[in-house]
UniProtKB/TrEMBL annotation:
Domain Glutaredoxin stretches: 41-105
InterPro entries linked to this entry: Glutaredoxin, GRX_PICOT-like, Monothiol_GRX-rel
Residue spans crossing the bilayer: none
GO CC aspect terms: mitochondrial matrix
PROSITE patterns: GLUTAREDOXIN_2
Superkingdom: Eukaryota
Pfam families: Glutaredoxin
GO MF term (any one): 2 iron, 2 sulfur cluster binding
Keywords, ordered alphabetically: 2Fe-2S, Iron, Iron-sulfur, Metal-binding, Redox-active center
Protein name as it appears in the record: Glutaredoxin-related protein 5, mitochondrial
Length: 146
């Protein structure tokens, strides 16, 4: 009887479990979408800015600090649904993930390239954020011109 019960009940249970998973995925996608669209700069990272828990997350935090970028961060290690959800949302397999003005920019490697090339300063300028590096460069030029 136990086998008969499992054969008749488990397919229905699996379908129910699968639909619950889809609902959970939809809910986390909506949550991520709201976070990304309601903030100019968002970093999904391992750890928090004051205590990053991986070198790549730390590198992104350091880049943000150099530019004095105000940003919202979310620790994916504290929420497994968020950790998997952000990977599904962006279709990008690694953490950290940076979003600027609602759009996925990339991870540590992309942020480092953008920082080195000056592209990050330009992207920040488009959304009304003046990089501290630009400010320092302008101050230096002003002093040279005096």
């Amino acid at each position: 009887m136990n086998t008969l019960f499992r054969r008749s009940f488990l397919p229905a249970f699996s379908t129910f479990r699968g639909s619950c998973r889809s609902f959970a995925d939809a809910t986390i996608n909506e949550k991520i979408d709201k976070i990304v669209k309601n903030n100019k700069v968002v970093v999904f990272m391992k750890g928090v800015p004051d205590a990053p828990r991986c070198g790549f997350s730390n590198a992104v935090v350091q880049i943000m600090r150099m530019h004095a970028v105000p940003y919202v961060s979310h620790d994916v290690l504290s929420d497994e649904n968020l950790r998997q959800g952000i990977k599904d949302y962006s279709n990008w397999p690694t953490i950290p993930q940076v979003f600027i003005n609602g759009e996925f920019v990339g991870g540590c490697d992309i942020m480092l390239q953008m920082h080195q090339s000056g592209e990050l300063v330009e992207e920040l300028k488009k959304i009304g954020i003046k990089s501290a590096l630009l400010t320092a460069e302008e101050t230096k030029k002003e002093k040279e011109n005096k």
